[in-house]
Amino acid sequence: MINYSINIILGSLFLLAFYAKVISIKDFNLEIIDYKVVPRRLAPIAAVCVLSLELGLFFSFTLSKYYFLSNAVAICLLSIFTIFTYLKKQSKKDSSLKTCTCFGNVKLLNKYPIQRNLLLITVIIVNYSFFSTVQIKIQTKLVVMLSILLIFLIFICIYLVNKKRTTNIVIDFLANQKLNKGLAIFLDYKSDSFSEIDSILSINKQDSIVVFLSGPAWLVKGKEKKWNTRVVLVDSDFISEDFISIIKGKSIQTYNNVSLYLKYN
């Protein structure tokens, strides 16, 4: 029973990773590009491959099907992620790589990705090697799997409702600012990525960018001069996280990874 319980946990983690990437697929494509492993034009294909593997691992672990293969694929996938993250960290010497976005807004699971992946690999090996499998009826497995899917479906619905509401708020806000085209960047000066975004904006100066910055008034004035762009002071309650909106009339496209968007667009 321990073996099956661990399988359920592992399957749920892979489904959570799948969910987090799907709801921010554009950001995930940028992250793949940033690893510089595949050509930029192949990033969407690589994203689909990763998502397919994660979803497949969820079904495989929860149904205990193709057990050896699913464990091997999971170990390989986690190992690849670990190697790429380590190489990226070494090349950039970037302390921000102590976190990742593999699990969306679940910050606890995003901390220390290398150590987390190594721990998961260890759990998979121990579970496969030392805990014997128990014969469980397929009906029970299906009920468990469908229950997990139902929970995630509820979360997806909640996410879509909140996203729609947030998008409308941003559209109304931008309309009040008389912006109907260009880029609008929403930043909190306390965010982990602020220094990196600051460096990019200082080098790549664009007139079409408007920055809405949460911070002290003196900082806003200083950054407006440094970035050579319009910077507007906004209340900290308005910005819960950094994001960038591409304004196209009355519609917007949103990216959560501001630094990667500015870097590759």
Automatic annotation (TrEMBL):
Its main location: membrane. GO terms for biological process: methylamine metabolic process. Pfam families: MauE. GO terms for cellular component: membrane. It comes from the Bacteria. The keyword Transmembrane applies. It is a multi-pass membrane protein. It is found in: Membrane. Keywords: Membrane, Transmembrane, Transmembrane helix. Residues 5-126 form the Methylamine utilisation protein MauE domain. The chain crosses the membrane at residues 6-22, 42-61, 67-87, 117-136, 142-161. The keyword rRNA processing does not apply. This is Methylamine utilisation protein MauE domain-containing protein. It comes from Lysinibacillus sphaericus.
